[in-house]
Amino acid sequence: MTNCVLCKEELKPEEGQLIWRGDDCRVILVNDPDLPGFCRVIWNHHVSEMTDLTHGEREHLMALVFAVEEAVRDVMHPDKINIAALGNMVPHIHWHVIPRYKNDAFFPGSVWSQKVQELPANKLAERKKLASQLPAAIKAAIAALS
């Protein structure tokens, strides 16, 4: 699909950082100023639904999602992890792995809801520093799958 934002190979710096890429999937650290540590696991081919994948492809994708979740939990120490695969705006398989905190900008709502509070700058800076450790942690978690 030519106009799918998830089919494109290159990320602009404001969009995020490519952490890992395999033949079928890639993992990016999303550049979201309110949610440090927000990651996406993206299927590399334009497919809209999980049931369009083979059972083996589904297992592979979910193993990656769980490896990313584990790394995010280990590094970020969130109160909760949100995992979401909506695809309403972009019908291309991708999973959001989002560390959530009781004092994040959107808590207790979804990250797509209105902000309800501002996180103090020092807390946000701490979380950004932690998020800078995610690329190495995620690569290690994925390597451990082999």
Descriptive key words:
29% helix; 5-stranded antiparallel beta sheet; HIT family, subunit A; 146 residues; 3 helices; globular; alpha+beta; 20% strand
Topology:
Blueprint: E1 16-21, E2 25-30, E3 39-43, H1 55-76, E4 80-84, E5 94-100, H2 121-131, H3 134-143
Antiparallel strand pairs: 1-2, 2-3, 3-5, 4-5
Explain the overall architecture.
With 146 residues, this protein is of the alpha+beta class. The protein is built from 3 helices and 5 strands, in the order βββαββαα. The chain has helices at residues 55-76, 121-131, 134-143; strands at residues 16-21, 25-30, 39-43, 80-84, 94-100.
Global outline: globular
Return the CATH architecture.
Answer: 2-Layer Sandwich
Number of domains: 1
Radius of gyration: 15 Å
Distance N to C terminus: 31 Å
β-strand percent reads 15-25%
Helix content: 25-40%
Query: How do the strands of the widest beta sheet line up side by side?
Result: 1-2-3-5-4
Provide a brief overview of the structure:
With 146 residues, the protein is an alpha+beta fold. It has three helices and five strands.
